[in-house]
């Protein structure tokens, strides 16, 4: 498998190379700074609602004196961006560390291996159950980048059921990202966006849960239909003749033990307590960080990790979050430049004038489409939240779409498109590890993405009509 991976890496180097996300963000910052000398400066007045939320007065827009960004403002914006989002950045570091402790206990690996062992070759049972587990872990934010490590488990399943590597990626990566995309609780994306939009943390839980359930069922059925066709006749595989089922050595498979069950139970209880508290008592990120400090450390102890190993896992988890956390700060600098250059409100006003040509139930789906486009360039979910929500929040106020639905448009547009865009490094790593070429992957995933998008746009339209807030 290692030799095949090396060959795949060599092949990928010859193909399309996407610039580093930091390069893209810095490029956007330079572009925005130039725009502050081109786009007329403008300003809305702010008003405070009865609930204490600050919104823009839609009738107050006026042009003001041009205020182009200086070179010094450009350089200081990096620090100001980090400072502006320090609470969210610290939260991301902590959560990454706590989840890394759980992952290093191998509890999740063992649990999934147990499912495969117990369900054997019952394709119509094992696939939806395994996808459900992966979806829930994605929903919780546990398996986003780490999902790459679960591709060998998907390959093991494909071997046993006589399926192709596309199925291996579908039951692991796609299922996890489906859960992540429609999450009701994920801190780095949903909670970050809600904090920027000044919404109660985890508000809109029921609406998102219904969408998660619908998208999950559609994804599972789509995958099972394809798996049945391949199982019946291998020539039905999109990559027929281009693969050999890879052998996964026994020593690479984690056997499920009693301690793994206890750790999974601890994690489940932690999520349950936090979800209840967030909905009932409006607990925020501080409560989640505290609860998962307990979950991570206690899970590590039950998993047999000593103090040094727990600390090492925690630090490694923080390191893994460094790229996304620092990117959030850089992305926030874009909003700072737009604000200091006095063109944020002008851009918002222009979008509002465009969207006001449509009823609000059309504006919400258009917001989703806009976020899909943005995600091609800014593939970090937390980074995109910081880039788009400062614009989407006032824009939603102006066009009659609730802030909750604006967050949903960002969330769904960011998450689901991660399964099709080559700018998502995790997806590219997963299909490379499974030996699936990008063009063949796109042939399989694109129809599913279209189905997802139709469902999402209908759901957003219904959300406007029933008054989701």
TrEMBL record:
Keywords: Cell membrane, Membrane, Transmembrane, Transmembrane helix. It is a multi-pass membrane protein. It holds the Pfam family DcuC. The chain crosses the membrane at residues 21-39, 87-107, 119-137, 143-159, 166-185, 205-224, 262-281, 287-305, 317-338, 358-378, 444-468. It is found in: Cell membrane. This is AbgT family transporter.
């Amino acid at each position: 498998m290692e030799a095949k991976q090396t060959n795949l890496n060599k092949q990928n180097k010859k193909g399309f190379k996407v610039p580093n996300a930091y390069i893209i963000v810095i490029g956007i910052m330079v572009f925005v700074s130039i725009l502050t000398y081109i786009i007329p400066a403008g300003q809305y007045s702010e008003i405070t609602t009865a609930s204490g939320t600050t919104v823009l007065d839609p009738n107050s827009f006026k042009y003001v004196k041009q205020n182009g960004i200086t070179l010094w403002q450009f350089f200081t914006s990096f620090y100001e961006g980090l400072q502006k989002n320090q609470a969210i950045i610290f939260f991301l570091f902590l959560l990454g560390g706590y989840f890394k402790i759980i992952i290093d206990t191998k509890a999740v690996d063992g649990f999934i291996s147990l499912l495969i062992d117990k369900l054997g070759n019952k394709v119509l049972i094992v696939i939806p159950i395994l996808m459900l587990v992966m979806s829930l872990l994605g929903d919780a934010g546990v398996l986003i980048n780490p999902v790459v490590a679960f591709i060998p488990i998907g390959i093991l399943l494909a071997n046993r059921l006589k399926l192709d590597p596309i199925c291996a990626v579908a039951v692991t990566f796609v299922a996890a990202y489906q859960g992540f995309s429609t999450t009701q609780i994920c801190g780095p994306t949903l909670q970050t966006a809600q904090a920027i939009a000044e919404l109660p943390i985890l508000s809109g839980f029921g609406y998102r849960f219904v969408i998660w359930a619908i998208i999950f069922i559609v994804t599972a059925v789509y995958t099972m239909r394809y798996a049945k066709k391949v199982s019946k006749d291998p020539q039905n595989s999109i990559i027929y003749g281009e693969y050999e089922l890879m052998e996964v050595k026994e020593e690479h498979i984690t056997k499920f033990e009693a301690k793994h069950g206890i750790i999974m139970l601890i994690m489940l209880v932690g999520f349950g307590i936090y979800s209840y508290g967030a909905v009932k008592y409006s607990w925020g990120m501080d409560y989640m960080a505290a609860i998962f400090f307990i979950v991570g450390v206690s899970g590590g102890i039950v998993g047999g990790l000593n103090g040094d190993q727990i600390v090492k896992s925690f630090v490694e988890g923080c390191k893994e979050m460094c790229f996304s956390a620092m990117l959030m700060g850089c992305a926030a600098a874009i909003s700072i430049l737009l604000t200091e250059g006095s063109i944020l409100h002008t851009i918002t006003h222009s979008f509002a004038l465009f969207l006001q040509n449509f009823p609000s139930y059309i504006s919400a789906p258009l917001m989703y489409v806009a976020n899909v486009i943005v995600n091609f360039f800014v593939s970090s979910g937390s980074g995109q939240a910081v880039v788009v929500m400062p614009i989407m929040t006032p824009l939603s106020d102006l066009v009659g779409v609730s802030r909750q639905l604006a967050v949903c448009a960002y969330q769904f547009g960011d998450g689901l498109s991660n399964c099709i865009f080559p700018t998502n490094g995790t997806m590219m790593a997963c299909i490379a590890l499974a030996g699936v070429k990008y063009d063949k992957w796109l042939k399989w995933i694109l129809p599913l993405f279209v189905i997802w998008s139709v469902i999402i746009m209908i759901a957003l339209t219904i959300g406007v009509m029933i008054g989701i807030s």
